[in-house]
Design a protein that fits this description.
The structure holds 2 protein chains of 2 kinds. By secondary structure, chain A is mostly beta strands. Chain A has one domain. In chain A, the strands form 3 sheets. Chain A has a 5-stranded mixed beta barrel with strand order 5-6-7-9-8. In chain A, 39% of the residues are buried. Chain B folds into 2 domains: 137 residues, Thiolase/Chalcone synthase (Peroxisomal Thiolase, Chain A, domain 1, 3-Layer(aba) Sandwich); 222 residues, 3-Layer(aba) Sandwich (Peroxisomal Thiolase, Chain A, domain 1). In chain B, α7 packs across α12. Classes of the chains: A mainly beta, B alpha+beta. Chains A and B meet through β5, β6 and β7 of A and α5, α6 and β6 of B. Chain B: This is Thiolase. Chain B: Pfam families: Thiolase_C_1.
């Protein structure tokens, strides 16, 4: 079975005032998603207006890092190497914000472990890289879900 | 009752990516426009309006075409936003120009040359931005990877099999085999499909459309004038573009709610299209479905009501989209998958040929054709053409 690795080389990340809190949190090993301070709905991607109530007041709570896998694709790191390592790019729904989706890599697992709806936990990002990485979490970590 | 009609079509030969050099995209567009004018029986200088979609093709704009062809004056020049999702909708722009009295003959033009500009690598080529950093940081940088997210979700929710995607690739190729204009004319087997390299699992190379060069022009006029022109008129029964907020940026972003996520995003367009034309799926003789990825053909069949939601897989697997014996023949020209990918405008040209009765793979007595554009980011679009 092909090895699962993080996507590399890391993509250069650009951010602005509106998206900075997401990347700052990742660099500190945490997941944060924008939430409306008025109606408390989470939203992705970050935006000035809350699409539910049009409030411009927002907050960026640090989340547990627990999530479930919504969907994914498996891509060869080097397309010319049919036996080489792959990365798994996915969309993860954070436990506290299940209606939002986070682009991520699934790591620290084998391909046959990966199934939709599997529980995930955030991997603290290595120094110098910017990417949301999740690994399989024990089901008990999902609070009985 | 019809206000406008397609009165001329023209195209260059289709080329594999980069093989159209040293022609320019404008050269090819001019060839296609000249051919469309000749087909319609009008001088090219009579064209007085232009409509476009998707600026991803690049290289053509109204001023340059007017200069190159000696077109003296235009009263309309507009493009739908987004990408290939606007392809069928650009016919609606042309209709708007005609109904509004801005133009008498409107050319809808697409010219694509991917020598330097591969659409499949469009995101990877862009510099990092605050927005694309979200997906690029996960190694998501190609339309096919977003398409794979949606295909995987459809498989998960409905039990859709890769055999269904294979059937789209295989049946579409089978049509291309007998279309002399098609780029890919060797038949495909299921073994070929499963041997095809995975590019974005669950989508393999044969689930992806071609990378092609070429140009197509579609000429529209008032319906009452069309009756006296060179070709059998092909009337615009309805042309709609737009879409709903749930789809939003669609598969180029991936933030759709679950119901919308595992779809082509086309349900609201289908509803408005059918309402405007007073028709339904049962009235359609041939469907030209935008096939940048096989999985989206399956989902469009659901969203346009040819089968229930979630049953697109079994529907195609039982042969429903086959030219021979299918209940709704799909892409008899070979589609974006096997004829050529000119961002979807080839589907409009094929719908016209089908209704004229001049197609290489003619659906018998075809009188009503559906053409779709997308899914992509907003807008999505669709078109109903009738004899």
């Amino acid at each position: 079975m092909r090895d699962v690795v993080p996507f590399s080389p890391p993509a250069e990340v650009d951010f602005d005032a509106g998206t900075r809190p997401y990347w700052e949190a990742l660099r500190e090993g945490a997941l944060s998603i924008q939430r409306c301070a008025h109606c408390h709905a989470f939203r992705t991607p970050p935006s000035r207006y809350c699409p539910h109530c049009r409030s411009t007041e927002d907050e960026w709570p640090r989340l547990s890092g627990r999530a479930r896998l919504y969907t994914y694709t498996i891509v060869a790191l080097d397309r010319r190497d049919a036996e080489g390592p792959v990365y798994v790019a996915g969309l993860a729904c954070p436990e506290e914000a299940p209606d939002t989706k986070v682009f991520c890599n699934i790591v620290d697992c084998t391909l046959d472990q990966i199934v939709i709806d599997m529980p995930l936990e955030l991997v603290a990002t290595e120094a110098g890289t910017d990417a949301a990485r999740f690994r399989p979490a024990p089901a008990t970590a999902q609070g009985g879900r | 009752m019809h206000t406008s009609a397609i009165v001329g079509i023209g195209a260059t030969p289709y080329y594999r990516r980069g093989a159209s050099l040293p022609q320019t995209p404008r050269d090819m567009a001019c060839d296609a426009i000249m051919a469309a004018a000749a087909d319609a029986g009008i001088p090219v200088t009579a064209i007085d309006g232009f409509a476009y979609f998707s600026n991803y093709g690049g290289g053509i704009e109204t001023g340059g075409l007017m200069e190159a062809l000696g077109i003296p004056e235009v009263g309309f020049s507009a493009t739908t936003t987004g990408g290939g999702g606007g392809s069928a909708g650009a016919i609606g722009l042309a209709q708007a120009a005609i109904v509004n009295g801005d133009s008498r003959y409107v050319a809808v033009v697409q010219s694509l040359q991917q020598a330097k500009n591969r659409l499949g690598a469009a995101f990877a080529r862009m510099p990092p931005t605050p927005e694309n950093s979200f997906y690029r940081s996960a190694g998501v940088a190609a339309p096919g990877q977003f398409a794979a997210f949606i295909a995987r979700r459809h498989i998960h929710k409905f039990g859709t099999r890769r055999e269904a995607f294979a059937e789209v690739a295989i049946s579409t190729r089978q049509n291309a085999v007998t279309n002399p204009a098609a780029l890919m004319r060797d038949p495909l087997t299921l073994d070929d499909y499963f041997a095809s390299p995975m590019l974005a699992d669950p989508l393999c190379k044969l689930d992806f459309c071609l990378e092609s060069d070429g140009a197509v022009a579609i000429l529209l006029a008032r319906a009452d004038e069309a009756r006296d022109m060179a070709q059998k008129p092909v009337y615009v029964a309805a042309a709609k573009h737009g879409g709903d907020r749930d789809w939003g940026r669609g598969f180029m972003w991936g933030n759709m709610p679950d119901e919308s996520f595992s779809s082509s995003g086309m349900r609201s367009i289908a509803r408005r299209l059918y309402a405007a034309a007073g028709m339904g799926p049962e009235d359609i003789d041939v469907a030209l479905l935008y096939d940048h990825f096989t999985a989206f053909v399956v989902m469009q069949l659901e969203d346009f009501g040819f089968c229930p939601i979630g049953e697109g897989g079994p529907f195609v697997e039982q042969g429903a989209i086959r030219l021979a014996g299918g209940s709704i023949p799909v892409n008899p020209h070979g589609g974006n998958l096997s004829e050529a990918y000119i961002i979807g405008i080839t589907h409009v040209a094929e719908a016209v040929r089908q209704i004229r009765g001049t197609a290489a793979n003619q659906v018998k007595d075809a009188a009503t054709a559906l053409v779709t554009g997308g899914p992509g980011p907003m807008p999505l679009s669709a078109l109903l053409l009738t004899a």
